[in-house]
Amino acid sequence: MTKLGEYLAKKSVNKSMVARKTGLSKARVNELTMTETAKLRLDEMYLIALSIDTDPCEMMKVLCEDLALADLDS
Questions:
Q1: Which residue, 68, 25, 55, is CA-closest to 33?
Q2: Which pLDDT tens digit goes with each residue over 2-38?
Q3: Global pTM?
Q4: I want to staple 19 with a disulfide (CB 3.0 to 4.6 A). Which of 26, 49, 70, 72 is the partner?
């Protein structure tokens, strides 16, 4: 399961409802939540956040918490 999948599961979100509200296909929503190699586009993340009444910035912070800038001082 992807970080998005975990995020939606914690919030008990129905993926079919997300697909319906965002206009994304059910297959795409399943891919984004189950396939680690799937690339979540910014527009998709924004629509998903709106569809579940979540602040897109808060959602992005959770999904990107492992990202960091390279340490160039080394």
A1: 25
A2: 999 999 999 999 999 999 999 999 999 999 999 999 9
A3: 0.91
A4: 26
Tokens 């939606």 sit on residue: 8
**Which letter, b or e, does each residue of 47-59 get, where b requires 16 or more Cβ atoms within 10 Å of its Cβ?**
bbbebbebeeeeb
CA distance 16 to 48: 12
Percent of the chain with pLDDT over 90: 95
Long-range contact pairs involving 12-21 (C-beta distance under 8 Å, separation at least 24): 13/52, 17/51, 18/48, 18/51, 18/52, 21/47, 21/50, 21/51
